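Collaborator request log, item 7. Partner lab (contact: R.S.) asked for a structural prediction of Carnitine O-palmitoyltransferase 2, mitochondrial to inform their binding assays.
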Amino acid sequence: MELGLSIYTKVSSRPCTTRRVYQAPWFDMYLSARESVVLNFNPFMSFNPDPKPEYNDQLLRATNMVCSAVRFMKTLRAGLLEPEVFHLNPAKSDTDSFKRLIRWVPPSISWFGAYMVNAYPLDMSQYFRLFNSTRIPKYKRDELFTNDKGRHLLVIRRGNLYVFDALDRDGNLIKPAEVQAHLKYILTDPTQAPSFPLGVLTSENRDTWAGLRQKLLDAGNGEALQLVDTALFCLCLDEEVMRDHIHISHNMLHGDGCNRWYDKSFSIILAKDGQAAINFEHSWGDGVAVLRFQNEVFKDTTEKPLVGPGSQPAAVDSSSAVRRLEFKLNEEVKAGITKAKENFQAAVSKLTIDAMEFKKGGKEQLKKKKLSPDAIAQLAFQMGFLQQYGQTVATYESCSTAAFKHGRTETIRPATIHTKRCAKAFVEQPGKHTVEQLQGLLNECSKYHGQLTREAAMGQGFDRHLFAMRYLANSKGMALPSLYQDTAYAAINHNILSTSTLTSPAVSLGGFAPVVPDGFGVGYGVHDEWIGCNVSSYPSRNVHEFLKCVHKSLEDIFTVLDGKPIH
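Returned to partner:
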């Protein structure tokens, strides 16, 4: 699963015609997929709570997040959002003085100034799809739709869809007290949940949804659907209080299917107790863009909130400013909604999620031992799976290729001869190796994983090259080379361990479903003093046992790093 600009110059948020050419194969892969986007594609990333408890009130947090999201959008579209930069020597390049200096350098040569201090600008071409964007279901291949003229927000509560203008006629954010008043009006609206909630159709098979959407259009719902599609983004106000991390994961990854519009580029979901997350549609972009947005919104809402516990909603007529969308539904569409609910429940009922926190060490300790934190986490997954199932399997780790123009992702292949050798030594033959030998095996894994990561980030992985060649062969009507029909190629693309990592002060946890029926979806983060995993599975795998095995593997690794033998 996934999660070239001049440095410190203005960032273009305009669509680029060449983007469609460069990214066509990748877009085709996502947009031609007919499976539901729920579980199969859309991931989630949950926000940490606001450090000030009183600001976690659902209405207050929703108001602040909407305002901060609009402020981010305004900064982006004005070309004033600070570019994403990879700093190899942050002491020189990630400084206010360097940023002030480089602003005056002409764009044609500013890249050279950045290069001289080992700073590399990252591609931000995905960002324009963050706002006013929707995936439109079409027969055989969906379309991405963006119209930046929309000034309104889409809000969903109890399966009812509402819109109100968050921007005034000049394109500026309306008063925060007005946003608060409109959201309060929606939160107190006594309208009951509809018997046929339209949002659940976005969880359907894409061809099924495309057919039903056409029937909605034929029945005269075009204007209402256009308001959904052109909205800035979607805000989902949920009625439930979150019990624990597992409940949060299920709610933010899929929810009940009725209080969502999964096709929007992203949705901010707010539970009754103020727990918040972003669920995003994956075809338009990757976690890098969404995480930047999430980081900025969290920072802005926690450091400079525009409304607080003492704020009063504006005395405005929200009943005229807020519109609840109504749809004309014929019997065929109603039957489609009923069927979509059944299909949704059948799919999500099979998903199990569990989480684990390893508190006996993290990034700091590993770096002192000159080991890659990511390499050790990935090794623990290999060891855990070997301990549970007696084998090692195809493993996928996503890696951003944003160092390239219009870059998306490449695959790191963490399961190697080095991890297999090390995992077998730890799991099957611990008594046959000295502590020093086991430490040596850990070093080998770390070095090789570091090499694979560098290669993937710099476009030297093999997965996307093979993907592109297969795409070209298919598009030209050529017979597929024998490599693509080899059982080994099928095996390496049946990713039983699908993994993705992120750590951020804004994010509590992230997650996604397995990419194959007999797989695990492994979201993880290596923090300074601890390591966390949020893992999903379907019935053919036992996620609880897997996490116990991963925890045991980490215990063994850190025991060896402390110079002690394992038993």
